[in-house]
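Standup notes, structure subgroup. Blocker cleared on the NAP input:
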Amino acid sequence: MNMHNLSQRPVGVLGATGYTGLEVLRVLREHDGVRVRFATSEGRAGEEACLPGVTLVSADEAPLGEVDLVFLCLPHGEAAGWARRALASGVRVVDLTADHRPGSGREDGAVYGMADLEGPDVREARLVANPGCYATGVELALHPLLKGGLLDEGRTVVVSAASGVTGAGRTPKRDLLFAEVAGDFRAYATGNGHRHLLEMRAGLPGLDLLFQPHLLPVSRGILETIYAPVREDVDATAVRAAWREAYGGADTIRVMDGVPALRDVVGTDLLALGAVDNAGLGTPVVTVVAALDNLGKGAAGQAVQNMNLMLGFEPARGLRWRV
Ligand SMILES: NC(=O)c1ccc[n+]([C@@H]2O[C@H](COP(=O)([O-])OP(=O)(O)OC[C@H]3O[C@@H](n4cnc5c(N)ncnc54)[C@H](OP(=O)(O)O)[C@@H]3O)[C@@H](O)[C@H]2O)c1
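Run returned:
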C-alpha cells in the first residue's frame, strides 16, 4: 500500500483514465518509494482517480513543478508538447507513447528505455521513451541472440504476434466492439507496416524482420511466436543459455524450459521466454515464444522499471511478478 510519507518521491500521471495510465496507478499504489501527486483526465476532471485521495485534474491544471517525474500515458501526438513543458519545469519524463521512440523523428534528446538492456543512459535520462508492447517482447527475445552471434543474419526473422484488445486503448472504436471481436481472430497491419517495426529495427540493427500482428479476443496479453533462423551449431538450449547469461539476475524476465502462455504473465510485469527446436528443416530455425502483458511489461511495468532506474531505486521495486 502506498502510505504517504515525506521521503516518498512525488510523481504525476498524465492520462490517468486510459488503460496504461490506470495500470501505472495500480503499480504505483504498491510502490512505497513514490506518491502520486496528481493524475489527469480531460473528460473526468473533478472525479476521484483510482487511487484514494487523488482527484483527477485536467492536464492544464496539473502542478507539474511539484513532481520529480511524470508519466505520459496520452494518445499519440499529445505527448511531445507535454514532454517539452515538463522538461522546461525541470521534471523528468517517462513517455509511454510512440512520440519519442526511434523512428518518430523526435528521438533526439530521448533515451529509449528498454530497461533490461539499460546502460547508464536511463539512470541519467531526463526523457525516456518507453518501448512499444510488441517491440519489448521481440527486442528482449532477440537482442542476446543477435549480440551473441547465434542468428543466421542472412535470413529473415518472422514474428507472428497476437495482442489482447486493451492494446488498442480505451477510446471506443467500432472494430473493437464486443460483437465484432468476440469469437473472432484476425490479422491487422498486414504487409510488414506496423509502426513498432521502426523501433524493432533500431534495436536490432541489421536484422531482416517480418512482423505480423493479430487481434486476439481477450482483454490483455501478448504472445509472440518468433521463427529465429540460427547458425548450424545453434539450438534451443544455446538460445536459453544466451538469455540466462543476459538476464540471469533480472526479476523481470523469466526463461522457461517449455514455452510460455498468456496465463504465465497476465497481471504481472514479467516477460516470459521459451525456445524449442524444429525437426525436418533444411536450415535450422529455433521457435521462440515470448509472452507479456501489454499493460504490464509492455507498458506500465517497464515504465515503472525505468522510473526506478531514473530515481535510483532497485530496478524491480514495486513490480508484480506473480498473478
Ligand atoms: N494500450 C496498450 O497496451 C499500450 C501499451 C504500450 C503503449 N501504449 C501507448 O500508451 C499511450 C496511451 O495508451 P492507452 O491505451 O492508455 O490510451 P487510452 O486508453 O486511449 O487513454 C488515453 C488517456 O489520455 C487522456 N487524453 C485523451 N486525450 C487527451 C488530450 N488531448 N490531452 C490530455 N489527455 C488526453 C484520456 O483521458 P480522458 O479520456 O479521461 O480525458 C486517457 O486518460 C498511447 O500512446 C499508446 O500507444 C499503449
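Discussed briefly. Residues 15-21, 41-44, 59, 73-76, 78, 96-98, 132-133, 166-167, 169-171, 294-295, 298-299 surround NAP (CB under 6 Å).
Next: hand off to the docking folks.
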